[in-house]
Write a structure and sequence with these properties.
7-stranded mixed β-sheet; alpha/beta; 4-stranded parallel β-sheet; Rossmann fold
Amino acid sequence: MHVAILTGGGDCPGLNAVIRAVTLALLQQGDRVTGIERGFLGLIERRARPLDHAAVAGILAEGGTILGTHNKADPFHYFGAAGADVSAQVMAYAGELGLDALVAIGGDGTMSIAHRIGQLGLPVVGVPKTIDNDIAHNDRSFGFDSAVAVVAEALDRLATTARSHGRVMIAETMGRYAGWIALEGGLAGGADVILLPEQPFSVDAVAARCRANEQGGGCTLICIAEGAAAAGGSLTVQQTIADSPDPIRLGGVGHWLQQQLQPRVASEVRTTLLGHVQRGGTPTPFDRVLATRFGVAAAQLVKEGRFGRMVALQGSECTSVPIADVAGRNRLVPPDHELWRVARAVGVSMGEA
Amino acid sequence: MHVAILTGGGDCPGLNAVIRAVTLALLQQGDRVTGIERGFLGLIERRARPLDHAAVAGILAEGGTILGTHNKADPFHYFGAAGADVSAQVMAYAGELGLDALVAIGGDGTMSIAHRIGQLGLPVVGVPKTIDNDIAHNDRSFGFDSAVAVVAEALDRLATTARSHGRVMIAETMGRYAGWIALEGGLAGGADVILLPEQPFSVDAVAARCRANEQGGGCTLICIAEGAAAAGGSLTVQQTIADSPDPIRLGGVGHWLQQQLQPRVASEVRTTLLGHVQRGGTPTPFDRVLATRFGVAAAQLVKEGRFGRMVALQGSECTSVPIADVAGRNRLVPPDHELWRVARAVGVSMGEA
Amino acid sequence: MHVAILTGGGDCPGLNAVIRAVTLALLQQGDRVTGIERGFLGLIERRARPLDHAAVAGILAEGGTILGTHNKADPFHYFGAAGADVSAQVMAYAGELGLDALVAIGGDGTMSIAHRIGQLGLPVVGVPKTIDNDIAHNDRSFGFDSAVAVVAEALDRLATTARSHGRVMIAETMGRYAGWIALEGGLAGGADVILLPEQPFSVDAVAARCRANEQGGGCTLICIAEGAAAAGGSLTVQQTIADSPDPIRLGGVGHWLQQQLQPRVASEVRTTLLGHVQRGGTPTPFDRVLATRFGVAAAQLVKEGRFGRMVALQGSECTSVPIADVAGRNRLVPPDHELWRVARAVGVSMGEA
Amino acid sequence: MHVAILTGGGDCPGLNAVIRAVTLALLQQGDRVTGIERGFLGLIERRARPLDHAAVAGILAEGGTILGTHNKADPFHYFGAAGADVSAQVMAYAGELGLDALVAIGGDGTMSIAHRIGQLGLPVVGVPKTIDNDIAHNDRSFGFDSAVAVVAEALDRLATTARSHGRVMIAETMGRYAGWIALEGGLAGGADVILLPEQPFSVDAVAARCRANEQGGGCTLICIAEGAAAAGGSLTVQQTIADSPDPIRLGGVGHWLQQQLQPRVASEVRTTLLGHVQRGGTPTPFDRVLATRFGVAAAQLVKEGRFGRMVALQGSECTSVPIADVAGRNRLVPPDHELWRVARAVGVSMGEA
């Protein structure tokens, strides 16, 4: 078989581990593997290169993607052609390459495009990629553990400053819609307050917690997801977020919260926007193993001819689901999730009034 | 309620996170918490101290256990009394303290003792602690991810030397009976060969792989569990291992393998025994979250009066099992486990002839 | 002797290592040591505690300061008394405590106050603390290596994203007046462009470099100090910086540069403001050794009665200089410093037109 | 000019940073650069490749050497030709390549060979490479900081186990003749006892310290260089070390010390041999900067025609010394070095009776 691989959407630690695993698993079975450059843009612009053992040697621990990626390249609505549908061109290129299948590694958007490509006749297999851990039907995705580790390490650092100065320190994490990173990162970093998009927060409640800590002689560590919003009055911030071209905005919700809190507490309040460092760099060992499992599972789906499916982790089992079931859905932290209870049990305020 | 906590057996990253979570969860419900020092030795020697908020502040990310631990203290066979049964004395002390329950955090041995203590009338709840990830009925334990991370980072380091010199580098990991650490650590570190206790290895096969790599211009990275053994002839090593008082032996199976390989390959062979650094130090964020979940779950079992049970992770769910079902069993890597297939699919030799 | 220690100004990795070293070195000689809490605030508010072996055990690798610190507490101009001079009160407290000497660990501001305290009759010894590495007569200060390490690691992470997406990534570091952190961090992180306060930069030159990289198929990594400013037109930014109450501002020079660059380059431009994580967390081993040397040297100055002096590193030698020579001066990166040449030699643009 | 680069001897973090800096600095001046593979072996076996911008892109943070290295390849005594002198052959190859100069990066042995090659007419410049920090006339070498960081991190990990179990933990570091790694690593890791080759130690004194710590309720952390030896009776160990083919021996001086200590102390004694992980992996930011400075300085020596010289750091200045002055000398920790005093001042036992 001749199988192509591409990576779409934002980069994520572990992408290279998936590329390596898919490639090695297929090469071992005598297949031919081609890497498409910069996501679907490479299919449009006809940029591909062979992937052999040498090409994937030593990339397991490397962050990013050796194939490059692109946030916006959609063959059905190509920005380079005034939004025109260039999918026929993509299919022609796939035909010229002689592709038997495409492994598309990406998020929600990539899966939607992959699904449509599949319907045009190029058999596809999907691998979920989401730093936010919010792809439907997939319990845990590679890259997420790495992002949580960055957040936890940052909180460890901020905690020493908070303690030394008796401050309120706010760390704003990724997570526009789903709060997984802030939740696990905050728990791992010992945050006093964790604020998620799934639960509108009360500024009064957060301020009350800061003051209680002050009275106990302590500092306060707040971990807030970029998509978190105050109950009621914070529409302005939410608006700003929705309108912003870039999730790493100037003066996000963390800074907004700082402005709200400062007049209500005695200690100084400071904010750190963790930003892009959350998605770059070498994957944690956990993510390397998970990404390798996903890559091998994708190769297996290809070999078994089970197309139109996306690899997924359910519990501790690596399985697959129809790509069609994934597109357009977000996996938020459900209200009854164990970690809400765990956080509250160890005294974390989740911002409820 | 008045609840005691103890940590038994070897230390493990995440113990403090469990202690903290149990303590905070119980304090929040108005309970009283006492820490027993140095495992069951503290119950024998009557050493305990109160655990309040201050006592557990800032310990989430600390390695080891603030309560101390002991490898060999068994009230039913006390080394300090020529092997006598001093359990009555322990129960008397528990009575004097006015304990309503005991949370015992430990491995197989700790669970066996906890089970017997429970039969004597002190209600117990267990929390599994195993750096080797080999406690029955528990899919993943805190500390394991941290150990895997140490192994993977060591392999990353050894790989640069292997490549620069064109060497065969052997890294010997923990894992006397179960190969989980070598398996996940080896996968995460990109090992070419992974040798586990569950699968006797062929020195010829390993040497063949090294020579094949040499011919391809490459080096070879071998990750071997301390309990791995060659098929057939290596009884001497196995004997040495079984007789050794300390799992971190001089000249373990890694060095034995080096001696066997050196005459059969062209490149230099070097061995590193990773040793105690695998079990010390700050837990990974993953382990901090898992340990916190386990601690909260243990507190909940106590509050629900579900005694005689051990917290366990099954799939992604935190549940519990009878302690009696755990004692005396080991969770080895099963022959049909997904990771065998994954490792082979990406070209790892598992040492089969 | 009875010696007091205090830490003033912003926190910095290695403060605890200094406190530990001063304390251990004095205790070993039979002296008595007292820790003043929260910098000079503790002398004003009469908050002190004894420092013995137990108090400094295990703090070597801890970030921050166990004594706490305060940015603004000045006995000669006390914010808590409408700017009044409360130094007499401080001297009275020192008398009551029976202090023979004070070791003041801090930056420029702390040294100025310490100098005046010394003139009032309390013998003082200074230890330079500056994350920015900009204290006069001191070649290298503890905490600086740790900050550089944070910057370099962040650049490593951002580089993977930059490469994967073909982006221009800007990282804004600390350094209002002196560019040491951006310079060494940028060199260590492989930045293509490094912009320092000491050298007004040309936006055109930076844009030209980005475009050259684009044409070579590459991405661009820019490391900019918060105090850097464009030659000529950027007065607004400089003004904003000077007026800002907090060095970690919203929309600093990094974001300003992003806005200037975006219209002039083809690829996407993104900015990360590294913020407070640069000053928190465990010190690097280098900083732990340096801080220990400084602490021992301070204790020695006290024992030798060489008061009014500040410990300083010159070349590789730990020596001392009069505190009076330090106050009110900044050690900028001199125009003829070797690292300018080194950076240019490896192709880094320093922003010159 | 046409300049060749080679790396000789054991690998060391920062080699790639030197290769990159030499290459970039020379390319920028219009020179041609060639990499010789596997040290002097490449000159013998005629293996070279061009070094351009692409070849050195992204290698700054990579451990090891992209050129490969060899421990034993000496053109004046070639193991591949029964010890024959093949230097004429090497000079012929250099002539064919049209080399104007050779930059040799390596230790004592590499400098000796480079010196002789220079005398045969190929102009050479040396760059000191020593993980042990023991090259004469050079205050600090790249790779050393990285090794110290590995040791300090290992001690941090071992300390948690030592505390949890109340144990004596011994960590054996690199350093056959010079104790720099054990000294700085031990200081940074908070060791209670540091034993160097430069100072024969008394087992009685070490045991006394362990017992004193036991009585104070504490554990003991010992950091011992592989070349350390007991005063008087330990000749056997020293002999073993001298005869061993590999510095990472089975049962080195750490294990010997364990055997001596165990009968004399109450707590368990455990040893970890840190081994090859000390020399592999990504260089610390400090080492990346230092290696870059060394590389640029080497390129400058070449351009200035100052041959026969080795780059050297003296104080904080990057200068150079005649290669002839370096060969055959070792830079041990001098008896009056500041760090002896610093260590003793903070209560570290250096093993004196």
